[in-house]
Amino acid sequence: MSRPCPRPRAAFPALLPALLLPALLLSAALPALAGQAGPLPAVRSLSLAHRPAEALLPAARALLGPQGRAVAEGRRLILRGPAPLLAQVLPALRALDRPPRRLRLALRSGRG
Fold first, then answer.
1. pTM assigned to the model
2. Which of 30, 33, 73, 93 has the most CB atoms at less than 10 Å from its CB?
């Protein structure tokens, strides 16, 4: 007569205490690790009234520096970067969006 096989012990309950502590430590460390990466980038759109976006694109890229990006779309600048940086850059770009100066030329033709 064959003997019934003993029921195999489940390995998971034995591993539970060994897995629980690292999982708790990791979940406690995640917020600190996320803070090291810096704030998530913000995206802002600036509609221009007087100039094409391509004209202000070099100034936008210079103001944003390596922390941000700028893309021109017609009369709109799309800016991406840290929110505090965008809060400083947007007023400067709005100030640069002025109507171009009009230049009036008068020509006189002299005979003789």
1. 0.57
2. 93
